[in-house]
Amino acid sequence: MESKPLNRRIFLSRIGAGATALAVATSGLGILSEAANAQTDSLLRVKPKKTGFRFTPIKATTKDDVILPKGFKYDVVAAYGDIINPKKDTFGYNNDFTLYFPIKASNRGLLWVNHEYTNPLYVEGEKVNDKYTPAQIEKLLYNQGGSIIEVYYDKREGKWKMDATSKYARRISGLTRFKLTGPAKGEKAVGGSINVQGTFANCSGGKTLWNTVLSCEENFEDTSKNAGLNPTHYGWVIEVDPFDPNFQVRKHTALGRFNHENASMGLAKDQRVVVYMGDDKKDACVYKFVSKGKYKPEMGKANSRLLEKGTLYVADFKKGKWIPLTIDAVKEAAAGKPDLLQKFQTQGDVVTNCHEAAILLGGTPTDRPEDVEISPFDNTIYIAHTNNDKHGNLHGHITRFIEKNSDHGATEFEYEIFAAGGRQSGFSAPDNLTFDSNANLWTVTDISSSSLNKDAWRSFGNNGVFVIPTVGNDKGVALQFASAPIEAEFTGPCFTPDEKTLFLSVQHPGEETEDLSTPTSTWPHRKGEKMPRPGVIAITGFNF
User: pTM, whole model, 2 decimals?
Assistant: First the structure.
């Protein structure tokens, strides 16, 4: 009998109803028990399980492997170049964000995986006379974007595998045609375009309340230049339905154009959709989008239209206010500055040149705001600020936003430093975030491969995964759960609904390699080859 995708309504009914269920379903958090869902109070929308999550933390290491605590193991589910479907499409390069969609509960599902950038040493080859050939450009674009793969747990062998016969598996890449939505669609700011070519530089992302993927275009500048593409067509948040190839893939310009890291979706108290986002560069801002219309579960994927109209805000940390990025406000701030008045004439101009508009209106420059996630336990917002050596913040920190009246639609907030990187905490450069049902915040780290194990980063070993409790006596204390291969970073942590498996990307192992014959890493250590391959792993052994 053929397995069918787990219907969204059925899925929500299994984890409870209302805002709590929606928060759980979009946070990447596993399914909580009915008893846990029932325990709510004025502070916590969902009380964490009391069973606790126990493991013996590992120590920093420089080993060329994925190192885990005793009792845990990993399976390589897919790696660069693997065939993913009967059409012979292949898994892209430098995988990042992962998002699991159940087909048969937690044992079989679709996995969306971002592909952020390539390495000419292994993919497209070096330029010829400072230019790429058409064939090289095709490789450059094809190996970025995203992969939809079908994965399942093989009980006989006790391991996770990819099903290369899947009818769902496909690639969304720099060659795929997209439509634009929102205020920049057809505007002069994007060259009058309504449809554009491809997505690339895909970093992190999020899940919508209607069960589609939001994937974020981050450092798009080099690829767009090398491929001869209009850079204003990139730097957006895209939307894809992993189950339905007939769902028109789209870029939502109302969410702004910048170096997007991720997109975390929640609901305001009045049922408007809210999306929190970070701009991953030094001295960049934190944003949120609030839809004009209200979310209606019975509308299903038609709710996608909510991402086409609304208000984009930037955070002013000093005043604790969300500043609306409107054309009227920008024109007022640009008064007496002819160049700016010429640049900003429509709302399409504002969203296309988002960072400049944000700074003009008083948005706070911060230290590389990467992943932004909503806690399903208390509705607060956690933001990973990776680092900023321009201001001496070498190790980064995680901030926590508290919206006024615990309402995502609020225009005022307070914030605090939840955890700071450094020798005292054992981690440096926090990046992607997720939660488990014990109210632990999981973070991966992104120390640049050129800095690992030297100078100010000598004590941290390779990049890793850390578990940080958000409640209880150990609140804010980081415990190392995993260590990455040489010169790699972990990205995109995502639990299955039953929390028995954690999917995790291993990105750019051996990134500092200069000679193919002497790679600095050989992970995933495939028999008969030395080539390091970015890949996705499934970690098992959890007992929440």
Answer: 0.93
